[in-house]
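Module 6 notes. Inverse folding takes a fixed backbone as the condition and produces residue identities as the prediction. Think of it as a translation problem where the source language is geometry and the target language is the twenty amino acids. Below is one complete input and output pair. Work through it position by position during the lab.
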């Protein structure tokens, strides 16, 4: 009986011990999960604080990076790479003094001495004029509102009194509207070039004694957006003929969309080429971020497409059999966010990746003015070996557990996008990143901070068309308001494709000012 009791006690003790061990194991897992959550939240806080208060530049100081600061890289395989210098001279911003353009008209203001002052105080001799001392100031002539009176002369036959004729008035951008082409051009330039919302422009017009409500201004912009559609169509045709295009997209809130709430986010897409002679920037509004939108923009394009890592572009390139290029700027951005979120003490791996990427960009900078063939050879001899080293480092890192959520995201992005990221080395004409598209869409993002949203789908589509014209004009060194003042009066009178082609931004006579 005693032995049975002892055996039962031992069994009970073992069960309790097993339960305690199970609870301890569970507590360890919970503790690890809490520690991981704490680290993730700390990273998130550091990242948000830096976004809120630090500089938004993605440039990384060379003294913050040390390419071979990890023991795993200090091997014979990487000894030659270790000897390479990673130092880049610090950038010094030059102060630029304001200058006065030589082509501006001058108004001469003569400052002369009085007759009494034109006499020498020593001997009373009349002074002789021998030269001038000239200085210049910039002056501003405020805008003013004027009224264009269209007087259509009417004629009749004095003999029979049965024939009457009235002179025709040129076709207007908006028929039976009080808005002239010049006024429409200025309103569009203020909104889409200067990011000045329509309600602020309405307040400006009140200072001139003209009461124009923003509803009228919005309706005018919608009609102007429809007016320029033929130009947009030709720009799409021309862009699709190029061998390389860039694409990107950003969010846009539209308050009144069919079947959608005001809180749902729509999209503004951008597509651009990088031709110096005919630079084209096209915006496209869509309520969704679906593949069909990118497919429509690309049309019959059959070249190379530079994008970020959004999966829609993968599907489009696969469907159209396009060469899909990956963006190293995005890869760099993720590692920079990981470095900033981890803090300087724990950012070794992020710094390692950033140093590799920094070297790739330095190669591009050195070969910037080289020919396409020369750039291809430079990439093959310098960038390709460096990419092989980076791939070896990545293979080691991705097999190990990564505690940092930001670093894991950066490493995963680099691994998943790798086939697209290295494709730029295959041709000298292919870019290393998607910065052309990001720079093209930035003015719209800046404007969105001021006007916040579009009221209707028609307004969003009009904004896409007018942004396309304004940004393409800027990219071709044509002043936007000048360009729109050429387009709005002439486009309604265009009767053939040649008339419309003459109004494309790169065909406008820049000498006419």
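Target side of the pair, the amino acids:
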């Amino acid at each position: 009986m005693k032995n049975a009791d002892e055996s039962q006690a031992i069994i009970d003790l073992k069960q309790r011990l097993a339960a305690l061990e199970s609870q301890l194991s569970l507590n360890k897992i919970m503790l690890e999960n809490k520690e991981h959550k704490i680290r993730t939240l700390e990273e998130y806080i550091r990242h948000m604080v830096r976004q809120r208060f630090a500089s938004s530049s993605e440039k990384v100081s060379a003294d913050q990076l040390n390419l071979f600061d990890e023991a795993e890289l200090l091997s014979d395989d990487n000894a030659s790479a270790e000897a390479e210098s990673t130092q880049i001279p610090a950038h010094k911003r030059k102060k630029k003094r304001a200058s006065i353009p030589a082509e501006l008209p001058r108004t001469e203001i003569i400052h002369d001495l009085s007759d009494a002052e034109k006499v020498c105080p020593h001997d009373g001799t009349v002074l002789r004029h021998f030269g001038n001392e000239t200085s210049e100031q910039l002056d501003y002539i405020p805008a003013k509102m004027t009224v264009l009176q269209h007087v259509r002369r009417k004629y009749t036959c004095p003999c029979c009194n049965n024939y009457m004729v009235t002179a025709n008035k040129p076709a207007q951008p908006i028929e039976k509207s009080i808005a002239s082409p010049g006024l429409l051009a200025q309103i569009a330039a203020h909104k889409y070039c200067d990011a000045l919302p329509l309600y602020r422009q309405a307040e400006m017009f009140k200072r001139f004694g003209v009461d124009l409500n923003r509803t009228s201004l919005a309706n005018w912009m919608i009609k102007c957006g429809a007016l320029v559609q033929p130009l947009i169509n030709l720009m799409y045709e021309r862009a699709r003929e190029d061998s390389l295009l860039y694409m990107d997209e950003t969010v846009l809130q539209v308050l009144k969309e069919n079947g959608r709430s005001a809180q749902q986010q729509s999209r503004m897409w951008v597509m651009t080429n990088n031709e110096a002679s005919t630079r084209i920037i096209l915006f496209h509004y869509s309520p969704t971020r679906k593949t069909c939108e990118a497919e429509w923009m690309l049309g019959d394009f059959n070249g190379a497409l530079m994008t970020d890592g959004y999966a829609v572009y993968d599907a489009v390139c696969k469907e159209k059999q396009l060469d899909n290029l990956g963006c190293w700027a995005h890869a760099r951005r993720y590692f920079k966010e990981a470095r900033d979120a981890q803090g300087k003490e724990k950012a070794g791996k992020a710094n390692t990746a950033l140093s590799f990427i920094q070297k790739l960009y330095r190669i591009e900078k050195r070969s910037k003015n080289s020919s396409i063939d020369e750039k291809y050879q430079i990439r093959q001899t310098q960038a390709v070996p460096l990419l092989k080293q980076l791939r070896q480092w990545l293979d080691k890192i991705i097999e190990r557990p990564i505690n940092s959520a930001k670093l894991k995201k950066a490493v995963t992005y680099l691994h998943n996008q790798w086939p697209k990221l290295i494709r730029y080395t295959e041709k000298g004409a292919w870019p290393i990143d998607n910065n052309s598209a990001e720079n093209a869409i930035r003015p719209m993002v800046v404007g969105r901070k001021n006007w916040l949203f579009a009221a209707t789908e028609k307004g969003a589509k009009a904004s896409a068309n007018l942004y396309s014209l304004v940004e393409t004009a800027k990219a071709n060194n044509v002043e936007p308001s000048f360009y729109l003042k050429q387009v709005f009066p002439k486009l309604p009178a265009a009767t053939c494709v040649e008339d419309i082609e003459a109004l494309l931004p790169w065909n406008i006579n820049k000498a006419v000012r």
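Reference fact for the lab report: Confidence is low (pLDDT under 50) at residues 66-91.
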